């Protein structure tokens, strides 16, 4: 079972494990407290 997203041109793009891991890393970075 897998998921997909539809881009602006209507193309179906499969969601890969790499895409999920990259998104999680970006979320981790954005949730870090600001450094002083």
Q: In percent terms, what proportion of residues is strand?
A: 15-25%
Structural class from helices and strands? alpha+beta
User: Compute the gyration radius: what is it?
Assistant: 14 Å
Main sheet record? 2 strands, antiparallel
**Order of SSEs:** EEH
Helix content: 25-40%
For the biggest β-sheet, the strand order reads 1-2
- Give the count of helical stretches: 1
User: Distance between termini?
Assistant: 44 Å
| Strand segment tally | 2
Poorly predicted runs of 5 or more residues: none
Q: Output mean pLDDT.
A: 90
> What is the overall silhouette?
elongated
Structural account:
The protein has 36 residues and is an alpha+beta fold. Helix content is 39%, strand content 17%. The protein is built from one helix and two strands, in the order ββα. It has a two-stranded antiparallel ribbon. The longest helix is centred in the middle third of the chain and has 14 residues. The N and C termini lie far apart (44 Å).
């Amino acid at each position: 079972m897998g998921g997909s997203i539809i881009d602006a041109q209507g193309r179906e793009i499969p969601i890969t494990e790499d895409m999920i891991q990259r998104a999680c890393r970006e979320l981790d970075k954005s949730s870090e407290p600001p450094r002083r």
